[in-house]
Amino acid sequence: MHTSHFRGSPLNIDLVYADLDNLRSSLPQLRAALVPGTPRRWSQHDLTDEARARADALAVAEREAKHVNMGQGLKSLGDGRAPLSLSVLDVLADIEAAVVDLEAAVVDRLGQTRLAGASPAERITRLVGLLDRIAATEDLAEHVADEAHRMKRQARRALGDVEPVHRLAGRCPICDGMSLRAMPERELVVCVNVACRCNTDECPCNATQPRRHRWLYNEWPWLAQLLADDLENA
Questions:
Q1: Pairing state between β 188-191 and 180-183
Q2: Are residues 177 and 90 in the same domain?
């Protein structure tokens, strides 16, 4: 298993790569899902810039027309064409913008030149190629890992594929709440209590933008034993 380290815990580069690769393969699937009822042809090529621009313009026009008609108490009759899925279009736009921002943050931090006119898939491919260098910078590695997984989940959710989350029968060793959740795809256990705080000043839970406590795969045996002891004493 390919790992690096940040904040004293290993960063699983294999999992970050898997998230980025999954996100990259989801882009054409999202574009295929723009029209409800259209069969998903996973092997189809990405839309061209011109086609994407036409789709975006059509979606904006349809949304504006809908709002105008609703304001007048009218129902749109349409022209017989299947309307674009605005929820999928919004997700696709958010992801494409986030990919641009993430690539910019990484290359600026690593002292490289931003890609001009690159597609989201090309930017993701570049991020994949930089993972070893990203992992050497603690806060950048954490940011990339979080963003990669957030965008992957956003894309998969829009496509109807939700990551399994399992509730654990045990109390969080920090806040004592019944708030532990296991996320097998990420090899993580997370405390979902937003008020969970520890006494370590350097812990991300005490940052300006606090982050929930998490235990990675290599810490599971310790956590499992702790939960077992807790259940025995209950």
A1: antiparallel
A2: no
What is the b/e burial string over 122-133, where b = at least 16 CB atoms within 10 angstroms of the residue's CB? ebbbbbbebbee
CA distance 44 to 23: 16
Question: Tell me: the pLDDT tens digits for 133-142?
Answer: 999 988 899 8
Same domain for 119 and 183 = no
Return contacts of 161-168, CB within 8 angstroms, 24+ apart. 168/227
Please give the Cα distance from 139 to 141 (Å, whole number): 5
- Amino acid, res. 33: A
- Angle in degrees, CA 107, 109, 115, rounded to 5: 15
Domain boundary among 158, 182, 210: 158
Last residue of a domain, one of 111, 140, 158: 158
pLDDT per residue as tens digits for the range 153-177: 899 888 887 677 888 888 898 999 9
Return all residues near 227 (Cβ < 8 A) that are at least 6 apart. Answer: 168, 169, 170, 171, 180
**pTM (two decimals):** 0.55
Tokens encoding 38: 């259209």
What's the domain count of the chain?
2
Tokens 């950048």, residue?
Answer: 140
Containing domain of residue 67, as a range?
Answer: 3-158
Same domain flag for 141 and 227? no
Q: Indicate if 91 and 112 belong to the same structural domain.
A: yes
> pLDDT (tens digit, 9 = 90+) per residue, 53-112?
555 655 555 555 555 545 555 444 444 445 667 788 888 999 999 999 999 999 999 999
Distance, in Å, from the CA atom of 54 to the CA atom of 56, rounded to the nearest integer, reads: 5
